[in-house]
Amino acid sequence: MPRRFGQHSKSAAVHAVSFTALTGIPEIIVGTDLCSLLADTLDAQALVPKDTDVLVIAQKIVSKAEGRYVELGDVTPSQRARELAERCGKDPRFIEVVLSESTAVVRVAPNVLIVRHRLGYVMANAGIDRSNIGSLPGHERVLLLPRDPDVSAEHLRGELSARFNAQLAVIISDSFGRPWRAGVVNIALGVAGLPAVIDRRGERDRDGRVLEMTEVAFADAIAAGAALAMGEGAEGTPAVLARGLQWQAAPSDGQRLIRPTREDLFT
Questions:
Q1: Is the dihedral of CA 115, 119, 121, 127 positive or negative?
Q2: 211-260, pLDDT tens digit by residue?
Q3: Strand 54-58's sheet: what is its strand order?
Q4: Quick one: which of 241, 87, 227 has its CA closest to 169?
Q5: pLDDT at residue 7 greater than cutoff 90
Q6: How far is residue 227's CA from residue 82's CA, in Å, rounded to a whole number?
Q7: What confidence score (pLDDT) does residue 38 get?
Q8: How far apart are CA 23 and CA 180, in angstroms?
């Protein structure tokens, strides 16, 4: 059965948000038509998308379909990669791939390598993954993030909206660690069809005070909620349909969520 998580307010007009995992999605291979696969899966579960529904899709299946694999056997580590590998205890070939996807190394510690990804994300290992990517005998391969998650999200949004004659939104999500907080949560890498950030500065709270700093990471919040239905291990449910969300702000892409370097006080 699809997993559903709902939240209800205590106000007179009850507002509910649900997250429904799409089940039965097979292993994704290079060239898989994700639009058709996701549409067929929605049909099989009798889920008819509506305007403002949001499809949250795990980055991993997008990367797989796009063929974002690198064979470690084909990688020759640089001196810089070897030096970093000594400090963090990782495979120098893996480090070389991380460096190829990064613009800066932020932190290095035993078993930890935090970098600034070429798209601006500050993250561990440039988001490069070895888990749940399918094993091939005699191969050591890793999976990179999509080349441009916003472009991928917009492509999926356009195709699926046309298929179902509904104005859908799409989020491509990935799990992130956070400074000063244990554990990981899902965040939005690519966003299409909804506001990634909702700026509430200038509004007033219940006491009439003007909000001066409040910007809501709307797409990240949706991605985090969807992760409860998606799972982080062997669940095999890499897509979730979120329903009941409301917004008025104009759509923006996932780059809107990245704090400009000049404002980054933490890295």
A1: negative
A2: 767 788 999 999 999 999 987 655 678 999 999 999 988 999 999 999 88
A3: 7-8, 16-21, 239-243, 54-58, 169-178, 181-192
A4: 241
A5: no
A6: 35
A7: 97
A8: 34
Q: What distance in Å separates the CA atoms of residue 54 and residue 11, rounded to the nearest whole number?
A: 24
Q: Is pLDDT of 1 > 80? A: no
pLDDT at residue 12, rounded to an integer: 40
- Model-level pTM? 0.89
Tokens representing 37 are: 């696969």
Distance CA 107, CA 115 (A): 7
- Greater confidence (51 vs 203) lies with 51
CA distance 243 to 51: 9
The mean pLDDT value for 199-204 works out to 76
Mind spelling out the 3-state secondary structure of the chain?
A: CCCCCCEECCCCCCCEEEEEECCCCCCCCCCCCHHHHHHHHHHHCCCCCCCCCEEEEEHHHHHHHCCCEEEHHHCCCCHHHHHHHHHHCCCHHHHHHHHHCEEEEEEEECCEEEEEECCCCEEEHHHCECCCCCCCCCCCEEECCCCCHHHHHHHHHHHHHHHHCCCCEEEEEEEEEECCEEEEEEEEEEEECCCCCEECCCCECCCCCECCCCEECHHHHHHHHHHHHHCCCCCCCCEEEEECCCCCCCCCCHHHHCCCHHHCCCC
